[in-house]
Amino acid sequence: MVALLNELGSADAAATLKSIISRDIMTRLKLLDDGFHQANLFLPRDPEFRAWSGVGSPLVQVYEASDATGLAAYVAQQVAYIENATKEAEPLLQILSSLQPNHPLVQKWAGLSADVARNKLKSPTSSLGGLVQFLLSAGTDLEYGNCIDRLSKVSTSRRSFDMFADRLQSLQSGLLSRCVALKDQERKQSWAQFSSLFNRDLSGRAPFKASSLIGAGSSSGGASRLDFPPADLDDVAATLNQFDRVQKALSEVSPSSGGAKSQMAYPPHIRKFEEQFVRVRQLLAPLFPTEPGAPAGYDVSVDFRANISDEKEGGRIIDWSISTGNQTLRLKDSGKSLFWEPGMPIVLSLRIAKDSPLKPKADARQAVMSIEDKAVTYRYTDPWALFSILTAHREAERNARLDGRAQLLRFEFPLLAQTDDGKTMGNETQARVFIRLAISPAGKKTLLAWPASFPTKAPEWTMP
Length: 464
Description:
Distance between the termini: 74 Å
Strand order of the largest sheet: 4-1-10-9-6
Number of strands: 10
């Protein structure tokens, strides 16, 4: 009709008719759009997923479906409604595409119609298809255990007037935020359980005590009466197991999770303790082997006279030995090792030559040291004797290996020169000698690194 009026030379009448038709068709499209908007397509009951506690499928719950099958039926119903709406819009768009092609509503529905057509063809570029695929796949296999990994890899690309991409992004964003919040809650609870266990059962107990207290206070090389007894092996195992669970929770920050990564950051003092305890965990691992039939303990190799240049009177010692249980290594036993496990004592013996005028003297400051004639003995008998002797006598080396896989130990004791009839000659001198210990898992050659220090108290989880 508009074309006919133009042919008849009635341009004004043609323009008026065109305007009337355009307004009428646009009104019908607006009514269709209002109904489409009010349908709340794919709108979840709880967009932020706050009711999801981490149990079951979050999408099944948020769409109030009975199960994955019910969710699939809901999705199919929504798709059918969208297809019917775009089919109803097609004749309107055919007219409006020539009358008002740049109108936002026309462009919106043209995009919707095109995307529905792509979905029918199973095109991977269809936003509706992407939304449907996410709902159906995530509805069955998205869960608390994999939500961070799954949702941190989603695409954020979209088109203009793309309500399906917007809905998908809203769902994924809400899910990711909720998953992060639940993971953060789990980490805090897991850390609280670990820190409580550590501080109750290990803190202040050898080997998790201040180095200044190791080897002091009693002849056994353990704690004084005012200190806690050494840590029980079962308590150590339980605490290590809890730490493994903490580490798993702390590690669930995906590098590609964007904002989730910053939300899941944890306090610097927790990170510092974790890094320190990881090294302790690696050292203690051979005491709790997971391989069937593997022995629980260490092989300990010894290097006597390990730092001759800094010795004092070390050349006067003719007999060097170290023993644990019924095993003994002497100066001549190069390349051999001792087996040690918790509960076995460690004894270092040093004997000065009989013809030497020097004789060792007792030192009240060293409760673990005893003197018998010309023999000096360091005896550590607490359950963590190997750790105690290492902690008490470890010496920093100027040219030490950075990985800390062999430890230099320093021992000092007073000497007096005596005549054959027992009279003292001259002033007291101080002997200084060194040995080096290297530790490996029992039956293996790989040396273990000794931590710079053992933690003595687990901090509480607090954010600045």
